[in-house]
Every structure is written in C-alpha cells, then in structure tokens.
C-alpha cells in the first residue's frame, strides 16, 4: 500500500490521461474528477476506473482531442455535443453558461450528447450547489439492468443525483444508481469468489442469483423493483432521449479493447433558489435536517463522502500497490 496526497492523485491521473492520448484540457478535466472521487473515498470510480478511461483513449472509443460544441437553444437551455470525447470537459465548457442562465431565468437545463461515461453523478451537482444553486443530474450507460419482470438488460445503471447548498457546511448531495447495486460491486464479488445478495442480479433465465458470475452473464435488478424501472426509464428519456444520444440498448458492451464510442447522454439542471419565493430555504432546511439527525442511527445522504473528504485532505489516500503500478504504467514512467 502506498499513501499519496490528493494533489498527487491529480498529477498521476493527468499524466496517465495525457500519455493515453487526451489533450491537456481534456486530461485536466478528467484528472480533476478523479481527484474528487478519491477525496470522497470512491475508489471504484476514481483511480480504480482510470485504467478504463485510458484504455478507451488508446483504443479510440474516447476521442482524446475532442473539442465539445455548445449550441444555445433558448434563454434557459444549453445543448452540448461532446464529439465522442470525455463527458467532463463537455460539462466544464458550458457550466458557467448554465449557471448564468439559471440565475437569469430561475432555472436552466443542459443536455450533453455523444459523451463517454461521466463517473460520479454527485460530482456535477455538488459543483452547482457550491455556486449557491440546486443541482440535478442524470446519465445513461450501457444496458446492464433488466426491467422489473423481465430478464434482458435494457437500461444502464442510469444514476441520478441532486444537491442543495447548506449553511456553513458542505452541500447536501443525494446520489444513487437506479439499479439495485453498481455493476462494479457484482464484478468485485466475482473477483473475490464471494456470493451476492439475491436482490442484486438475475441469471440468464431471469431468476434471482447469489452467484456473481451468473449475475454478470444475466442482468442487474432495478432498484426497488417497478419503482427502479420507472426511474431508470425516466433517466433514459432525460439523458439519452432529449439529447439524441444512444439508448442504453444501443451502447456497445463495455469492452476495454472496443474502439466504438458509446455516444452516451447526460442531463443537468440548475435552479436558483432565490427565484422561487422562499428566501429562507437554507435556514429552513437546517430545521428539517436537525430533526432527521435527532433520530438514532440516522445520517444524511453524502455524510460518508464528506467525512472522507475531510480525512483525505489531511492524510491523503492509500492506494493498493497493484493499482498504483497499473496506473503508473499508463504514464510511461
């Protein structure tokens, strides 16, 4: 195990992305998101996912030199074409325009099309909340989740996230996938020869399974049965439908050697709370949150990530030797 600072995480991710074919602007945007994932203790979508970004930059599934294009459709809408590049620089390019439009109109929305996987959904809404705005985001992915009652992968894990600023502390961030669990959790159980709960996945016959390998061959279950199916479909329509991106069933299966861009979609919305008639939202919010926390065994969504952020800023992150060596191999050093 090796301990590195968050700044070193950024530099490592930046070097790996540059060597794999991303231009400096795109690599910087990606590295910033990797740093934030590690700050919040999200290894599987931080340094743990960096090799997948690099492999797809090398294979051409991600256009490393892509320059996203902005199209203004109305005073409250922004369209962005990622040009088969990374999702993070596409968001970065239009973020300030989105914030300005939401302050002007009360709320504004942004669609991103032809993008790669955007990693942590909460990363984007937290940034909106840091601007004093309420944020919502969702995205689709390659089909891994069967609809309730079915057995064929139809939706991606299709995460969604919401954030709101708080008084004198970190924003409240709610971030979850619309599948019963993330695919990486099933894959991790398979790698460690562990069983999984029978509520996580289905085998190829559509039957609940505790065998992670059977689950990976079959499909993930939706979160909360029919409710998760409804949420997954909603995300599909907002993220892929509105932007004209690929439906999850049209996205190539996740293969590190693939050179086919996934053409995924993302949807973002920011809301200016000062424009909706309640100047006391943030103080009123604290009243409700205090009531929640007064109950035993209750914690707020995102608390674990915030606690991790505090610790990693002070102590850095511990990275497994094998993972560190893998990531280092992409830097050419």
Domain module count: 1
Tell me what the CATH architecture is: 2-Layer Sandwich
**Nearest-integer average pLDDT:** 95
How much helicity do the residues have? 40-55%
| Total beta strand runs | 12
Low-confidence stretches: none
Strand content: 15-25%
Name the CATH homologous superfamily: Malate/L-lactate/L-sulpholactate dehydrogenase, NADPH binding domain
**What is the name of the CATH class?**
Alpha Beta
- Strand order, biggest sheet? 2-3-4-11-5-6-7
Summarize the structure.
This protein is an alpha+beta fold and 333 residues long. The chain contains eleven helices and twelve strands. 41% of the residues lie in helices and 20% in strands.
Describe this structure in words.
This protein is globular. The protein has eleven helices and twelve strands. Strand 6 and strand 7 form a beta hairpin. With 333 residues, it is an alpha+beta fold. Helices cover 41% and strands 20% of the residues. The chain has one domain: 2-Layer Sandwich (Ribosomal Protein S8, Chain: A, domain 1). Helix 1 runs antiparallel to helix 2, helix 1 (6-20) runs parallel beside helix 3 (50-59) and helix 2 packs across helix 4 (87-105). The longest helix has 19 residues, at 87-105. The chain has a seven-stranded mixed β-sheet, with helices on both faces.
